[in-house]
Amino acid sequence: MIIRKEQMMVFEQYARASFEKRAMEQLRSIHFERTEDLSDVNLGKLISSGIDKAIGYGMKEQPDIQRFLDYIILFGINFDEDPAREWMREVLEDKSLEGGDKIAWLDDDLAQAGEA
Hints:
The protein is mainly α.
């Protein structure tokens, strides 16, 4: 069986849409007070943008991307551009770290700072 490029694209779109739906449910559940004023459309745009940013930082696994989305809800869509959080951007841009290692590093530092 040969999978054509078009078929693969449809599969990838379906997988992403499915992940975005689960991500929205989880964000609404865990961060209810921070997401209750966002419409599904606006939260969906935030999630889609966040996924693209996470992928840009080398994250490939859904749990890592989901945690990155948590950071966006907690600290804002551009938390990685905030001068006060420059240390987070440095970790995210570190090419020697895999996506999961970046998340672990950030979670450890946030926990030590009492922010996680």
